[in-house]
TrEMBL record:
<dbReference type="InterPro" id="IPR035919">
    <property type="entry name" value="EAL_sf"/>
</dbReference>
<dbReference type="InterPro" id="IPR035965">
    <property type="entry name" value="PAS-like_dom_sf"/>
</dbReference>
<dbReference type="InterPro" id="IPR052155">
    <property type="entry name" value="Biofilm_reg_signaling"/>
</dbReference>
<feature type="domain" description="EAL">
    <location>
        <begin position="817"/>
        <end position="1073"/>
    </location>
</feature>
<feature type="domain" description="PAS">
    <location>
        <begin position="77"/>
        <end position="147"/>
    </location>
</feature>
<keyword id="KW-1133">Transmembrane helix</keyword>
<feature type="transmembrane region" description="Helical">
    <location>
        <begin position="12"/>
        <end position="38"/>
    </location>
</feature>
<dbReference type="InterPro" id="IPR000160">
    <property type="entry name" value="GGDEF_dom"/>
</dbReference>
<dbReference type="InterPro" id="IPR029016">
    <property type="entry name" value="GAF-like_dom_sf"/>
</dbReference>
<dbReference type="InterPro" id="IPR043128">
    <property type="entry name" value="Rev_trsase/Diguanyl_cyclase"/>
</dbReference>
<feature type="domain" description="PAC">
    <location>
        <begin position="438"/>
        <end position="493"/>
    </location>
</feature>
<feature type="domain" description="PAC">
    <location>
        <begin position="145"/>
        <end position="201"/>
    </location>
</feature>
<dbReference type="Pfam" id="PF00990">
    <property type="entry name" value="GGDEF"/>
</dbReference>
<dbReference type="Pfam" id="PF08448">
    <property type="entry name" value="PAS_4"/>
</dbReference>
<dbReference type="GO" id="GO:0006355">
    <property type="term" value="P:regulation of DNA-templated transcription"/>
</dbReference>
<dbReference type="Pfam" id="PF00563">
    <property type="entry name" value="EAL"/>
</dbReference>
<dbReference type="InterPro" id="IPR001633">
    <property type="entry name" value="EAL_dom"/>
</dbReference>
Length: 1075
């Protein structure tokens, strides 16, 4: 933890600043206030005195509080620093420039073995021996002079005991960066030094052992050595004979003997466990017989024949293995001292080594050829040098590694071939060390190859000695470790990067013990993210950051880790404040400070999971109402179908609803009110269904309901009625009562029972069109939804129906209507329409006064299509405008032709229907004016017929538009007058020229008296408003006579002529027909 020195200058500055501000504010404000309020000079003086004391008290209290607060902060910092300094076993101290101790921790006093009071204020001469104090003070003066920080080892003698310390010392500076003392930290490494020295002695002993072994290996004449040793033993032991028997199978046979010349005795084997030598071999202990002539344990007859009296023997063994027996003999009774026994035991050890060396030498001779063969085939380079460092052997591995053949290098110095100049001195030094007695030498050097490459080789060298122990050469083995060395360097770099990655990683990381689960290390990101301090972390286990309910899963995870399975994944963790977070864990096993551990990287994905959950909800739920959307509805419908296929579900139904007047609410009351209407509708629908049912919002004003486990179709229709009842209740939006209703379509499926219709496969299935085959549980969810929507559309078209159940006829109508709409669009593009003209006859003259332009459609395959069939569809789809404009252009063009051809006839007029779509379009006047100018027709010759329903839909803007049309000279007619409901009250306000009596009234004039009166009334009304009248549908002379008697100006109907194409109409004009 970083310790910051208190800044006394800042403290003083803050206090002065606060005091200046407060005092200035008090003096100025209080003086002015008293001067304004008090005019008595005596009273003013007293009050100013009181004011001064008040100021003194207030500022004193303020300064006291500031100083107290700052002192508390300083105390907390000092306590922290004190805890750190006193909590270590290392000696920490501070000296002034004179070398006196001015601060030290408890550990320092313990190391010096004095009380802290006996150290403070004294220098090293008062605490240590003169030599020790002088050395310490010289180092301190050097550090104070240079200002550098230095780490070193020093030996200190305290109370006659010398201890070794690893010390780090540096200068201590004041705020002006002047050196005012020295800071030191010293760690007692005496035990470590002793341990290192002990290891060094062990190494020297091992080297000495290797030297002895090497000498033994170089001693080759075993028999001569044994004879010499036996002679020496006999001489030293003052014995008469000595024998060495070696173990062979289960007996002992003489290998060397002195003082006994009997050949039979030498050849006589002794079984192990019998006799004198056999007892030594069996017990592995020294054995002494004072008088062999009378001792029953002596079984060798030659002993008694040779008159041997005293015998002493010791086993020859090495590493617990019996090699043989050494024993000496006296011809007279002889006592044996411990010294002689010890001497014999030492001699036995040397004999054992000599025997083993000889055996090894014989074995080495046998293996020499095989060893040479192995050297030639071994992967390590084997190189032999003589005393002059000339190469005498060079195996194939050396050829492969360095590139030189054996013939190229024999007799050469390796320093001239494969050794860089910087390493040559090391090669010579290695040979000198081996020559001086070093058993082996190891080094890693750079070497050169024949092709000039630099490689890294690891070398092991051992001396080659003659029989007399003289070093005659050097055997070196080398391995190319260039790749391994690069790997080790890379590994070191990787470890450094790993440490950097661990500490600076922005994600939390930690290492924990897999046995105890304790945290061993944590990075700063973990401390910051989880809220625990480093000390808290290191006192905790993995269990402490897991919720209690997740402990079983944690134990299972740890069991998997103990079996070598490292399962990464997402776990829940607890932060210090109790917050539960989702963490993505990645772990890896490692050994940390000698413990089996795991390093863990934790990535907090709490926000990501919340976002995923939100996205998942957006994917399946409609955000405004919270209802399932179409995707989730179809998924649940698919589940219901799957259950039906498995026989686990019975009858179910799909209801499709469309909320009426939604667009009107949105554009009149506002979008927010429309949203509230949708929300309230969703709430009402949710209250209508069972918990197992589903209600979903499919579009702006469209909903769907999935009813499951219903008893029969009546339950679904009853539900539709109930839903309708709930939705016709008023809605309160922004303080207003809004009324709405709905049309509902129903589709059923009961396992494999044929209930309604489905989609065709193949091409029609791809076009999502319904076929006239029944719906079953094998159908797709989309089939049911489309079927219910079709039924809903049927119910909407039949305004008296609240709901409709889907049946094949609806589908056929839908398909036919869809096909008709497609053909209608194609007909517009390909101009499949024709204009037929029906004459309008003057009742007064009986002559043709004009024509009404009527559109006809000749379908390429169906032939003539009735206007009754396609005109309503064109109006519904909005195509009527395109058709009407085309008819208007064609009719005006034809009228222009007729007016030129029949100029002597009274000017003809042309009546053309103007749809409500055209009436509400922008640019209507401009397009009409363009058509009139292009065709050369006067506006007075054009009559536009407008239906009553069009006037109702365009009530406000329609009147103004009619005025503009009149300004162009165009005549206006109300078509099918008498079938409307509200235009009569506004008739006198409209600039209308003509009323057309609907054919339904004209056709019944001779049958129903009421119809005649209606016609009479319409004609009277028109005349009173200065309007002409045209009667449609005249088919008999009686109807013509009645209309003439009523004063009707014009007539139109099959009595005169049916609608005909332009050539036939031209013939009528030329014939000057008259009725």
């Amino acid at each position: 933890m970083k310790y910051e020195r208190p800044n006394t200058r800042d403290l003083a500055g803050n206090i002065v600043l606060i005091y200046t501000f407060f005092s200035g504010f008090w003096i100025i404000c209080s003086d002015r206030l008293l001067a304004l309020l008090i005019h008595d000079l005596t009273l003013l003086t007293k009050l100013q005195t009181v004011k001064g004391w008040v100021f003194v008290l207030l500022t004193s209290g303020l300064l006291y509080g500031l100083v107290r607060w700052r002192m508390r902060s300083l105390q907390e910092s000092n306590n922290l620093l004190q805890g750190i300094v006193e909590g270590t076993d290392d000696a920490i101290f501070v000296k002034d420039c004179a070398g006196r101790y001015v601060m030290l921790n408890s550990a320092t006093a313990q190391h010096i073995d004095k009380l802290r009071s006996q150290i403070l204020g004294r220098d090293d001469t008062a605490l240590f021996s003169p030599d020790t104090a002088r050395e310490i003070m010289e180092i301190d003066r050097s550090i104070l002079a240079t200002g550098e920080t230095r780490s070193f080892e020093e030996s200190v003698t305290i109370n006659g005991s010398t201890r070794t310390y690893h010390s780090t010392k540096g200068v201590y500076r004041d705020s002006k960066h002047n050196v005012i003392g020295l800071i030191g930290i010293a760690r007692d490494i005496t035990e470590r030094k002793l341990l290192l020295e002990e290891l060094k002695r062990d190494k020297e002993d091992l080297a000495a052992l290797n030297t002895v072994t090497a000498n033994g290996i170089s001693t080759l004449n075993l028999q001569e050595l044994l004879d010499v040793m036996l002679e020496r033993i006999v001489e030293v032991m003052q014995a008469d004979a000595a024998t060495i028997r070696l173990k062979k199978d289960d007996s002992l046979q003489i290998c060397a003997s002195i003082g006994i010349e009997n050949d039979d005795y030498i050849r006589y084997p002794i079984p192990i466990g019998q006799g004198f030598a056999g007892t030594i071999a069996a017990t592995r202990q020294p054995f002494y017989i004072e008088d062999a002539q009378i001792d029953s344990r002596v079984i060798n007859p030659f002993i008694k024949q040779s008159k041997i009296r005293t015998m002493l023997g010791v086993p020859l063994e090495r590493n617990g293995n019996l090699i043989g027996v050494l024993h000496v003999k006296w011809l007279s009774i002889h006592s044996v001292s411990d010294r002689k026994l010890h001497l014999l035991e030492i001699t036995a050890e040397r004999c054992t080594m000599a025997i083993l060396n000889a055996q090894l030498y014989e074995h080495a001779l046998q293996l020499q050829e095989r060893l040479q063969l192995q050297i030639d085939h071994m992967p390590l380079a084997c190189i032999v040098n003589n005393q002059e460092l000339q190469l005498t052997d060079w195996n194939p591995a050396a050829e492969r590694i360095f590139g030189f053949t054996k013939e190229e290098v024999l007799g050469a110095n390796p320093c001239d071939l494969i050794t860089p100049p910087t390493v040559r001195s090391l090669v010579k030094k290695t040979f000198q060390q081996l020559e001086a007695g070093q058993a082996t030498a190891h080094s890693i050097n750079e070497n050169l190859t024949k092709d000039g490459r630099t490689i890294i080789c690891e070398w092991y060298s051992t001396p080659l000695k003659a029989a007399d122990g003289t070093v005659v050469g050097m055997l070196s083995m080398a391995q190319d470790i260039t790749d391994r060395h690069a790997t080790e360097v890379a590994l070191q770099d990787s470890e450094q990067r790993y440490r950097t990655l661990f500490e600076s990683n922005p994600h939390p990381m930690w290492v924990y013990d897999t046995d105890t689960l304790a945290f061993l290390a944590v990075n700063d990101a973990a401390i910051h993210h989880y809220g625990y301090s480093r000390e808290e972390f290191l006192s905790m286990t993995i269990r402490d950051i897991r919720p209690p309910e997740d402990i079983p899963a944690l134990l299972k995870h740890l069991t998997q880790i103990s079996h070598g399975l490292h399962v990464d994944g997402v776990w829940r963790h607890c932060k210090q404040d109790g917050t539960i977070i989702d963490v993505e864990i990645t772990s890896h096993p490692l050994v940390f400070s000698g413990r089996q551990a795991e390093v863990v990287l934790a990535n907090d994905i709490t926000q990501r999971k919340q976002a995923e959950e939100q996205l998942r909800r957006y994917a399946f739920y409609e955000p405004l109402t919270g209802l399932p959307n179409q995707a989730l509805f179809l998924e649940r419908l698919e589940q219901q179908l799957e259950q039906a296929r498995c026989g686990k579900a019975g009858l179910f139904a799909v209801l499709f609803l469309e909320l009426e007047r939604f667009e009107l609410v949105k554009y009149s009351v506002g979008h927010l009110a429309a949203d509230q209407l949708i929300i309230t509708t969703a709430q009402r629908l949710e209250k209508c269904i069972k918990p197992t049912d589903t209600v979903a919002r499919l579009g702006a004003d469209e909903f769907a309901i999935l009813l499951t486990d219903i008893q029969d179709s009546n339950e679904a229709t009853n539900m539709a009625d109930y839903v309708h009842q709930q939705l016709v209740l008023p809605f309160t939006l922004n303080g207003r009562e809004i009324f709405s209703t709905t049309s509902i379509g129903i589709a059923f499926c009961e396992k494999d029972k044929l209930v309604s219709s489905t989609l065709k496969s193949s091409k029609e299935l791809s076009n999502r069109s319904l076929a006239a085959t029944p719906l079953t549980c094998s159908n797709r969810p989309e089939d049911f939804l489309r079927a219910a929507d079709t039924a809903r559309h049927h119910a909407k078209m039949q305004s008296h129906l609240r709901h409709a159940v889907f049946n094949p006829a609806m589908h056929e109508q839908a398909v036919a209507r869809f096909q008709l709409e497609t053909d209608l669009r194609r007909a517009i593009e390909q101009e499949q329409f024709q204009v037929h003209y029906q004459p309008i006859v003057s009742m007064e003259t009986g002559e043709i006064s004009g024509f009404e332009a009527l559109v006809r459609w000749t379908h390429p395959t169906r032939g003539i299509v009735s206007p009754v069939e396609f005109i309503p569809l064109a109006e519904e789809t909005g195509l009527i405008g395109l058709i009407d404009w085309w008819v208007l252009r064609e009719a005006c063009a034809q009228l222009g032709v007729w007016q030129q051809e029949f100029a002597t006839i009274k000017p003809l007029t042309m009546s053309v229907n103007l749809s409500g779509v055209q009436l509400g379009q922008l640019g209507l006047l401009e397009r009409l004016d363009q058509i009139l100018r292009k065709t050369g027709v006067s506006g007075h010759s054009l009559k536009l017929e407008i239906t009553e329903s069009s006037l109702l839909k365009n009530a406000s803007s329609g009147t103004a538009m009619l005025e503009h049309l009149k300004a162009l000279g165009i005549q206006l007619s109300i078509d099918d007058f008498g079938t409307g409901y509200s235009s009569l009250a506004r008739l006198h306000q409209l600039p209308i020229d003509t009323l057309k009596i609907d054919r339904s009234f004209v056709s019944r004039m001779g049958i129903e008296g009421d119809s005649l009166e209606i016609v009479r009334t319409i004609i009277t009304l028109a005349h009173s408003l200065q309007m002409d009248v045209i009667a449609e549908g005249i088919e008999t002379p009686q109807q013509l006579a009645q209309l003439r008697s009523l004063g009707c100006e014009y007539g139109q109907g099959y009595f005169f002529s049916k609608p005909v194409e332009q050539n036939s109409a031209t013939v009528l004009l030329r014939s000057q027909a008259q009725w």
